[in-house]
Write a structure and sequence with these properties.
This protein starts with 9 loop residues before the first strand and ends in an 11-residue tail after the last strand. The relative contact order is 0.14. It is about 35% helix and about 20% strand. α10 runs parallel beside α14. The strands form 3 sheets. The protein has an 8-stranded mixed β-sheet. It has a 6-stranded parallel β-sheet with strand order 3-2-1-4-5-6. Strands 10-9-17 form a 3-stranded mixed β-sheet, with no helix packed on it. It is of the alpha/beta class. The structure holds 6-O-phosphono-beta-D-glucopyranose (BG6).
Length: about 475
């Protein structure tokens, strides 16, 4: 598959085109692909939603979203006038058979006009409760049949637990072949996350020390200053463990811990990642307290502004027991990682907005320098900053300038913004282009999603069985609940 070439003619049907995801992320991403000349000449987006709006109103709505959220800034008139021709809107009831008959007709007419078949991409930007009906209906009208042209995109949350994820996979795999299914984890589309593969496998330098002999522990952190914003209704039924750890953080862990792939074939990469998930040591439910910590934010201060407690957020139960912070200590039982703890943690309303991975190396086997030289000594570490800064730092000891031998930790830095002046594509741009090009490497396969649920199920069950009495247990604007650092 040539992923450097433009995709062939494409129709994207977005279910839930009036929603937030389409407005903030998907349509601005498609627009940027258009600006960067990645879209084929023949291209159409069919927005479908329950809202009763006209084509023009839909186009205006998309325009406003692009002006607000696109990384390339406000749309220029000339570009917009050409782009808006690709946007079609249809008020639709996702449960009605007529909706799918309409889609079939529209695809047939358009392909006739274009003089040939096109990629048909069905993007489910909808609440999970619609997935079954949309997938089944697409199947009934025969739109899933063509294994190379028809593709379906599913957003997270992918299930609520292992059982519901299995059920969803069953529904999807009944109608579509696994090769047609694109389960999105948008973290995998981030430039700095894809770079983990390049850093590890395009350099001979790091691989020999990337194991239990040299690495003491690894920390993976996704800290957000944001609260739940307007997603209280969803988040209160999910919590940080489901919302962040089950997907984004475990995917980062897979990229850090996987074995070198033999090739860049999608299934080869996904097999190596799934191997990691299968090797994660199972946590006994009665021992969860040793391996996992949860928290919920209270009111506090973020960057000088007073913010509410989680329980006062719109859509959240005033007695909510849902965690907004979750951390886990994991071990990977294989030759490479035996005995090396992996700490994953994520929280909302924390003291900083920063996602990063720290690889902490073991201390030198023998300190030959006198104690006075090494007062400030620290073990080596590599930090991969995912966002907002996009950097990699290698920390090591250096001699401080002066007449004495005094050591000090210093950093060697690679900074994306300094090394490359070109803009960085948004994760959704990368992922949408991959869907159009039929490249599944950065998407989650059914077995991967289920293996990730398997890892967190004992914690979910233990937390459900044991109601937290101490919530809220961290003030907004702090590094999370007490004890999470010790752990
Ligand atoms: C989403 C979660 O998947 O990722 C959100 O549902 C979270 O709760 C978001 O805020 C973080 O993604 P990003 O790209 O903004 O760091």
């Amino acid at each position: 598959m040539d992923t450097t070439a433009k995709p062939t003619q494409t129709i994207i049907v977005i279910f839930g085109a009036g929603g937030d995801l389409a407005w903030r992320k998907l349509l601005p991403a498609i627009y940027n692909l258009y600006l960067d000349k990645w879209l084929p000449e023949n291209f159409m987006v069919v927005g479908m939603d329950i809202k009763n709006i006209t084509n023009i109103q839909f186009q205006e709505h998309v325009h406003a979203g692009i002006d607000k959220f696109s990384r390339s800034g406000k749309a220029k008139k000339k570009d917009w006038v050409a782009f808006e021709q690709c946007l079609v809107y249809k008020k639709a009831d996702f449960k009605a058979a007529s909706t799918y008959i309409y889609i079939t007709k529209l695809i047939n007419q358009t392909e006739k006009k274009w003089g040939g078949v096109s990629n048909r991409i069905f993007y489910m930007a909808v609440s999970p409760s619609f997935i079954e009906t949309i997938v089944t209906n697409i199947g009934s009208v025969g739109l899933a049949k063509d294994k190379t042209l028809s593709r379906i995109v599913a957003e997270k949350p992918f299930g609520q637990d292992l059982e519901s994820a299995r059920h969803l996979n069953k529904i999807l795999c009944h109608t579509f072949d696994e090769s047609q299914i694109y389960r999105i984890d948008h973290f995998l589309g981030k430039e700095t996350v894809q770079n983990i593969l390049a850093f590890r496998f395009a350099n001979a330098l790091f691989e020999p020390i990337w194991n239990r002999n040299y690495i003491d522990h690894i920390q993976i952190t996704v800290a957000e200053q944001l609260g739940v914003e307007n997603r209280g209704g969803y988040f209160d039924h999910a919590g940080a463990l489901r919302d962040m750890i089950q997907n984004h953080l475990l995917q980062l862990l897979c990229l850090i811990a996987m074995e070198p792939p033999v090739s860049f074939d999608a299934d080869e990469i996904r097999n190596r990642k799934t191997d990691v998930l299968h090797a994660i040591r199972e946590i006994e439910q009665q021992e969860v307290f040793k391996y996992a910590i949860r928290g919920q934010y209270d009111k506090g201060w973020i960057e000088g502004k007073k913010v509410k407690s989680y329980r006062d957020e719109p859509g959240v139960d005033s007695n909510s027991k849902t965690e907004t912070f979750a951390a886990m200590k994991l071990f990977i039982d294989n030759w490479r990682w035996q005995g090396v703890p992996f700490y994953v943690r994520s929280g909302k309303r924390m003291n900083e907005s920063r996602s990063y991975i720290t690889i902490r190396f073991k201390p030198v086997p023998h300190q030959s320098f006198p104690a006075e030289a090494t007062g400030n000594w620290q073990p080596n570490s590599i930090t991969l900053n995912i966002q907002p800064r996009m950097t990699i730092t290698l920390s090591f000891q250096a001699k401080r300038p002066g007449l004495q031998m005094l050591l000090n930790p210093v950093d060697m830095l690679f900074d994306y913004d300094e090394s490359y002046k070109t803009g960085t594509p948004e994760a959704y741009e990368t992922l949408l282009l991959d869907v159009m090009q039929g490249d599944t490497t950065l998407f989650m396969r059914a077995d991967q999603v289920e293996a990730a649920w398997d890892v967190i199920m004992p914690v979910l069950k233990a937390w459900e069985a044991d109601t937290p009495v101490h919530f809220p247990n961290y003030a907004s604007g702090t590094p999370g609940p007490e004890g999470s650092d010790l752990f």
